[in-house]
Amino acid sequence: MSATQPTTATGTTAYPLVHAVNVTKAFHGNEVLKGIDMDVAKGEVVCLLGPSGSGKTTFLRCINQLESIDGGRIWVDGDLMGYAEKNGHLHHLSDKQVAAQRREIGMVFQRWNLFPHMTALENIMEAPVQVAGQSKAKAKERALALLDQVGLKDKPSAYPAQLSGGQQQRVAIARALAMDPKLMLFDEPTSALDPELVGEVLKVMRQLAQDGMTMIVVTHEMSFAREVADRVVFMDGGVVVEQGAPKDVINNPQHERTKSFLRRMRQEEDDAEATPSA
Amino acid sequence: MTDTTDERPGPINARPVPHPWRWVALVVIAILVAMMISSFVTNDKWDFPFALRVMNYNPVLDGLVKGTILGTVGAMVLGVGLGIIVGIMRLSTNPVLRGVSFVYTWFFRAIPRYVLLTILGTGLGYLYSTFDIGVPFGKQIAGLLGLSNDLTFFSLDVNQFSSTLAMGIIGLGLSEAAYMAEIARAGILSVDKGQTEAAHALGMSSGKTMRRVVLPQAMRVIVPPTGNETIAMVKDTSLLLALPVTTELFFQTQAIGTRTLQIMPTMVAATLWYLIVCSVLMVGQNYLEKRFGRGFGTGPARGDTSMLAKLRFRAGAGGA
Ligand SMILES: Nc1ncnc2c1ncn2[C@@H]1O[C@H](COP(=O)(O)OP(=O)(O)O)[C@@H](O)[C@H]1O
Ligand SMILES: [Mg+2]
Questions:
Q1: Residues with beta carbon inside 6 Å of ligand 1?
Q2: Which of A218, A164, A174 is nearest to A196 (CA)?
Q3: Which fold has domain B71-247?
Q4: DSSP line for A115-147
Q5: Over the stretch A153-191, which tens digit does the pLDDT of each residue have?
Q6: What is the pTM of this model?
Q7: Domain ranges across chain A
Q8: What is the Å distance from ligand 2's center to A125 Cα?
Q9: Tens digit of pLDDT for each residue in A233-269?
Q10: Taking a C-beta distance cutoff of 8 angstroms, is the pair A147, A123 a contact?
């Protein structure tokens, strides 16, 4: 663990697994993240809520360096992401070092991004074999176990195009898990899915949370946030507006922006229930 | 047959839409083909038996195998390999690589292949009689230090090398790489950005992401125009004469034509060989398209979908 990281104890762990301080990010002068602070303890499940355009996706992408940050620092498990600090100077890490840091972090995308030219099994085996250098036999055994874990034991040789959206997203989760990450990032994993397929993906995520995985989940699924999250963080306009236990933030929000967002979400949920399923 | 006890509509057994003009077109084409065959048979200036014999003459076969087929394969291997590298360089974040790639493509697309081969065949040997590999400025350094060895490890007589098939392959390959670079670039750009991000998120390096994730998908876009380029290359091997390399199909058949004064049958012999070679190439292209279309539903994939894909294809063809 880096000496420069302040030890803000969250819960019982000595230091948080994710420790983000004053993270800023702008696209062409448009400031999208305006100083985000966030700690996530080992084994904690954090749900990120907020209206579209509030910077949730950008923040997740900054954590595993799909975007570079303009200011602030992000540590994951004590490692400063993207830079090495020597004698008070920051040095960019090489591509190789960045890739090594990313191995510790699994990411699940809104549009799953499976490799279409590989079967489900090959998708899951790809990183363990090509990146971690595992033997094919060992990687295959683990991949089959992961497929079983996400309820797709019978689909190892299916190509992504032959799977439903929910099945593809579950393969994508298995693919990320195959590298044994310390942290899993989910960016609206169910929002591109047909309503009847949302449940099967959430079930896999729920199980993962129960097994003790540290997770940051951007989602609009209020029931998931309420039941699974240890903490809910509400973002708007590139800042964290409020955070706390799900029941406090969702049932008793303090800020006007949180209130109006939740009101809208509730409205949508009611509308969805009122209209007979298509 | 209708079942009156059940009033719900049964299976559809509809008559197809009539296509009278298809039949008219077929008859017209049949008449034209018959006229053509009749002229082939009645006009003995065609002399097909002689053309077939020319096709099997040893110098012709030699030219076909060495200059035309080997030349095509060699030039395309060099062209595709180098072209993909130049195409990737063009998309690099490194401005030096991007610049080199741009200048390469600019130069080799501008220069006609015939001119390029003439320069390589005659001009190069005039400028540099030998091609040496060694320490840069080795001769000068050796002179300064008074060494007997001039620090050259490998030396090639350019005048001899310039009129070999290898030189022809290099020339055609360099030219081809400029076109392939553009094709490869388009192919790489056609792959969704999410694919690169997913690979990076798994901890893959940029090189591995390119080789394992991006290029295999880009191939789907790269293969069809590459088939086109290969077929064009088969015909461009006739330019090898500029070097000059004469073990090549067109020169050999033409030589027989001028010697025997049977120009047309020898041209027929060459044409037939070109048709055969290109037909074989089209089969190869078809195979490659299927191979790289895996998982995209463009060709039958493994397992139970293949039957479905075939049926869909047949239905599509029938409606055309
Ligand atoms: N690559 C990019 N280039 C320019 N603007 C971007 C880019 N990515 C995101 N943005 C902008 O940043 C803002 C936040 O986007 P995002 O992080 O996707 O929000 P959210 O996920 O909360 O909906 C949006 O206004 C979006 O237009
Ligand atoms: Mg988003």
A1: A 27, 32, 50, 52-58
A2: A164
A3: MetI-like fold (1.10.3720)
A4: -TTS-HHHHHHHHHHHTS---HHHHHHHHHHHH
A5: 999 999 999 999 999 999 999 999 999 999 999 999 999
A6: 0.82
A7: 18-270
A8: 28
A9: 999 999 999 999 999 999 899 999 999 999 888 888 7
A10: no
